[in-house]
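During the no-cost extension, the postdoctoral fellow (Dr. R.K.) reprocessed legacy sequence entries with the updated structure-token encoder. One reprocessed record is reproduced below for audit purposes.
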Amino acid sequence: MTDAATLERPATIGHNSAAVGEMVKAEPAVVYRDETVLPALVAEIKAEIAALPVDLKTAGGRAAIASLSASISRRKTPIIDAGLALTEGWRKQTTAVNALKTKVATQLDALRDEARAPLTAWEAAEEKRKTAIVSALTFFAQAAVVPAGSTIDSIDATVARVEAIQIGHEFGDSETRAKEDQFAALAKLREARASIVKADAERAELEKLRAEAQERERQAQAAEAKRLAEEAERERIANAEKRAAEAAEAKLKDEAEAAIAAERRKAQEAEQALAAEQARQREAQAAEQRRLDAIAAEDARRQADQDHRGAVMRAAKEALMEHGGIGEGPAKKLVLAIVAGTIPAVTLKF
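Re-encoded structure tokens follow.
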């Protein structure tokens, strides 16, 4: 197998263009050692392609083109295989080098971390200390701004958190500022708490005054309601007595009017009885006249119906005579048969 060391040997092909194909065939790996070989091989193949007559009209001409193409493809295979062999050698060497690199990096990184461990621990502690300082200062600034709607419980909780932060030498140059900010935050919180306590007291006093005023108003309304109820009761009694007197007077008046009305009714009943008798007689006469009129109307209707039926039957007879070519007698018999219903599916429309 050709290895990387062989590939790296300086070489010159020492050939002319006519011998490149044979040299590559004898040793395909030469393409990877000498960069002039591939251009020379390509030029040689191009020359072969140019020298081949293109005859597509005959089977032999087409076969020659296919044969040249296949030979070019076959010449590629050993060159590729030689390259794969070289790549495999390089891969094994690369794997060994990479393994050693990983081992060196792992061990030396561990030694680097071991040497720096004290400084790393100090930096972490220092970063934690600085973060704690920034966090405390930020919290003091936030606590000093009491949001609207805060309650005494929420303020007391914030005060406890502010007081729980111990400020000592670990704050370094920020110790004085931290103490001042802590004191200022507590002052703002206590001031806000006092304002809420005062507002709650004023609100409670206001509620008490409002409740007392409402109670006085309720009592006044109750007294007024009682006075109005008593006045209404007195008016009700007076009105009831007045209505009773008026009712008694009206009863006497009604009884007198009832007696007069009774006499009038008797006279009216006598007149109504006479009028009813006269009306009965008139109704009897009118009923008789209606009966006679109904008889006359029925006679007239029957006569009109007979006349209409006669006209329809004459028209039918004349149509049969005209369109059927028959005499009056047969036509009349047909019409009478149709009216009698002796001819199926034939009727006259009256």
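Residues 175-324 form the longest helix (150 residues). Residues 1-18 have pLDDT under 50 and may be disordered. The remaining legacy entries will be reprocessed before the final report is submitted.
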